[in-house]
Each structure stands twice: as structure tokens, then as C-alpha cells.
């Protein structure tokens, strides 16, 4: 234990002091009655410059901002909200962080200890409500235990499989004064709780893994968010280069590998690239890294990589064999497993690494035959002077190669995932939960964490209206975020599904009735706003964003009937994609004829 502090301190003081001791520099939140003692203490710490609070306009945005803050740093995101509706407004953000395995500490105010269970004003059992969507949770009833609870919460949030931890603090705990509190050492927590965070892989398992790699002729790396969380970029690149193995990523795994590299196949799954989906259908060895075989990736599960042997590496033992039983499962941190493997690779006489040459040539042909962005988009745009969403998003990606990108959810999210190539940890999107309204508050969290970097939020006209009030936060702190609204006047992905699977019955998905002028809304917040209707305007306006460090809102009117392809229909295998000019079978037949 650290030395006992002999000063009389309030619970609120101990809380803020514990946050600072755990390395917290920024908090995202919104005050209210039950958490006011904590905010009153925070006032003094902010004045001293020891910590900074970012005032959002809705508690859900506080959770999303803290989530994105954590995604782009090696820190834990922290958010505050009061009891009752303040706490329940955090629920979606907590669930989002849990689904995407994001380290976050959520601190909520609660009614006084004597009022708990009496249905007091703004009392809600947030502990019980969030039990299924947190990694762990606490209700603080003993002020002296606050430092220990905080230290434990931060440890749990970021070790093992990361996730959100909730701490519910009654109002009188924040006000109560005490001498008896200690700041624990992490080593003490290990000893007391018997935590296990290391999963070491033994030599026979490593040799077996390497044996699978060296004997495969059509291997494929299937990379998920675990690679991002464990910072495995460099070791993954080394393994891919040594064995000449192509790589496909999930939406969460995007930016885990350089997408401009010849081994990159981009994203797989429902809206993945055709060549990634063909590759996963044809591979003989699938190496899953920090991925969970979710339905948007696998399509029809029993036909997913059905001819392949599967190797699965994941930090969470519960993920091994949950959806797909692997031939070899390894529980561990991807980076540490690969570091162990690289040491062994140097000592083993490998087969010729050109054995995947034929496989790669086949993949390159798929890439040539099924590009995501064809010349027809440019021709149509220039001739009719209208904008396609694909070319718009591609142009933004090309002109801002080093930027952080956040997205909302829908067609624009999938087009962004397909067409924007990001550097590691510069892609931030709600993947598992698919939360509309995530993009703008996420951009706030990214910009606060990376103030000197370009941050671009790609949103849709429907998603942005779920969090548009956060323009007030951007204006207050003068955060130089560039908001690009892909405006097609619809709930785009809903419309696409209604067109494809529901007989063109467009029930409640048209959004133009009642839609505001987004550029004028931006100006009402004191932010520069632009409306873009054609190619020339797009190029001129986007050029302004490169040199402008102020916040901007760009409302881009695009073709409203454009659909996001390729698309794997529900219940179909990944090789059966909609929106391709020629199916795999026809293409393979052409290849056979050429060989003949």
C-alpha cells in the first residue's frame, strides 16, 4: 500500500485524485443533482490545470466520446453522468463499448445511500440495468474503498479483453469526509484477487501453428479488432511477409494492416470486397486473429471457409469455439503470441515461401475483375454533374490520407470502410452494436485525444440528426473537426434493404420531409457550413478543409438511389454476393478456358 494520507478528504476529492493518479487527463460528461459534489470538487482541479472536463450536450455522447478517446490512444476513456436519466442515457454508449471491447470507466452519480431502494427522485438501478453490458461494476458504499475501486476498475477495463467498467457513487459518498484511505499498488491487487492476465503459449503449440502455416498453399489471415487493441501491426506485417499470406480485416480490424499493400484484401463480410469474400470461400487455411466469427462476417456460418482448417488466436477464451470450432485455438494476446512465434520461425527451416504464389496470382485477378470503384462513377459524375457517394468518400480519403476518420452507421459507413485507407488506430466506427449518432461525439473524443491531427467525421443525413446537438460542444471548445454529411435524403441502408428484400415498400425511411439545411444549422452554432451539389463544388470545398483548422460542416447532396455493393444477402454464403457483374463461377470458368 502507498503511504496513508493524514488529511481529511471528501469522497469527491478522493475520486478525482484517484483519476489523476491513474493517468486520466480528460473526462467527458454532463452534470446533474446526484453527481454535483463530484463536479464541485472537479471545479478546483480544472482550475489547477490537473484535469480537463469536456461538456457534451447529451450523456450518450459522453460515452461515445470516451469510447473513441480510448480507441485512438493507449488510455482508458472516462465519462461522467448523474443518476436516473443521466445514467440511463449512457446505456447505449456502454453497450457499444462492450460490443467493440473498448476500455472505459463510467462514473455515475446515485441518490444517497439511505435513499437507495425507496424510488427517490432520479433513482435508477444503473448497476442492475448495465450488468449484461459491462465487464464489471461497483456501487460504492464505503468512501475509504474509493481508491482501491478506481485502481481495480482501470486495471480490469484495459487488461485481458478490454471493456467498460461502471462505478456508481451515491451522493453522500461524494460529500463524506475521511482520513482512512489508501492508494493501492497494482501488485497488491494481483496478490489479493489472483488476477491472471498472461496466457503463455507453449512450444509444441507454436510448432504446430507454424507447421500449419508452412504446409498451406492458400492461407488467409482474418484480422479483427483484437489486433488493433494489442498493437500487433508490425508483428502481423512480419508474419504476412515471411509466409506471403494475404490479409482481410473485419470492420473492427480495419487499419490493422496497410490497405495499400499488395497482400491486403480490405474488408470481408456482408459489404466486404468481392476478392476478400472469394478468398475466404476458397482458402485452405484461415488464421483468425482477435476476431469473433460474427454473423456480418461469416454470412451462412456452415458455409464460411468450409474447406479450410482454422487457427484461432484470441485474448478471450470464451471466443474460442463459440461460433466456429478451430483445428487449433490459442488463448493469448495476438502481439505476444506472434512475438513468440517469430523467435521460433528464425530457428525453423521453412518451405519455399513462394508456395502461395499461385494463390496470390488468383487473388490479383479477382482484384482486377471486381474493383470497388470503377471509372463509370467518374464518367457519370462529370457528364451529369451529380455526385456519387462512392466517389465523394473516395475523394475525401485520397485528399486526407493521414487523418483520423470516424463514421456513423449505414451505407456511408460501409462505403467509407471499403474506400478509405487508414493508418493504424485512425479508424473509429461503431461495429458490433451499429449505433447511429456515434460518429460526431466519437470525433470529439478523437480530437480531444489528438488535438494536432486532422479528424474527419463521415456521417449520413439520418445519423447526424441523432447527435447534431454536439455541434455545440465542437463550437464551445473550437475543435477543428470536419463533418462530411453524405446526404441522400433517406435512411440509406434501410431503403436498400426495403428495395432488395421487402418489395420496394419504403416504410418510414424517407427523411427529406422535415430535414433541416445542415449548412445553416452549422452557422447557427457559429461553425462554417457549406452545401455541395456537384463535382466542382466538392473539389473546391474539400480543398478548403486541408488548410483550415477550424470546424467545418459540409453537406454533400448525392445520388439518392445508389446502393452499397457488394452485398451478401442474409442466409447466403460469402461467395454469393449481390451487385457483381459476373459471379465467381463464371469468372472461374473463364480462367479455366484461358489455362486450357
Compose a concise summary of this entry.
This protein is of the alpha/beta class and 596 residues long. 40% of the residues lie in helices and 16% in strands.
Largest sheet: 6 strands, parallel
Please work out how many helical segments DSSP would assign: 25
Strand content: 15-25%
Shape-level CATH architecture of the largest domain: 3-Layer(aba) Sandwich
- For the biggest β-sheet, the strand order reads 3-2-4-5-7-6
Q: Count the E strands.
A: 22
Number of folding domains?
A: 3
This entry's quaternary arrangement is: single chain
Shape: globular
CATH topology of the largest domain: Rossmann fold
Roughly what is the average pLDDT, rounded to an integer? 91
CATH superfamily of the largest domain: Thiamin diphosphate (ThDP)-binding fold, Pyr/PP domains
Radius of gyration: 25 Å
Folded structure, characterized:
By secondary structure, this protein is an alpha/beta fold. It has three domains: 9-193, 3-Layer(aba) Sandwich (Rossmann fold), CATH 3.40.50; 203-369, Rossmann fold, CATH 3.40.50; 375-565, Thiamin diphosphate (ThDP)-binding fold, Pyr/PP domains (Rossmann fold). The chain is built from 25 helices and 22 strands. The strands form five sheets. A six-stranded parallel beta sheet has the order 3-2-4-5-7-6, with helices on both faces. α14 (295-298) links the parallel β12 (285-289) and β13. α1 (11-21) crosses α2 (36-47), α1 (11-21) runs parallel beside α7 (146-158) and α18 packs across α19 (411-419). The protein starts with 8 loop residues before the first strand and ends with a helix.
